[in-house]
Amino acid sequence: MHELPASQSILEIILRHAEQAHAKRVTDVYLVIGQLATLMDDSIQFYWDIIAEGTPAQGARLHFKRIPAQLQCMVCFEKYSPNEEEIRCPNCDSVGVKVIAGEEFFVEAIDVE
Amino acid sequence: MTQRVSIVENILNANDRLAEENRARIDSAGVFAINIMASPGAGKTSLIEQTLPRLAGQLRVAVVDGDIATSIDADRAAAAGAGAAIQVNTGGECHLDAVMLRGALDQLDLTQFDLLIVENVGNLVCPASFKLGTHKSILVASVPEGDDKPYKYPGMYRGVDALVINKIDLLPYINFRMDYFQRGVEASTPASPPSRFPAARGKASRVGWSGW
Question: How far is A2 from chain B (nearest CA, A)?
Answer without folding.
Answer: 8
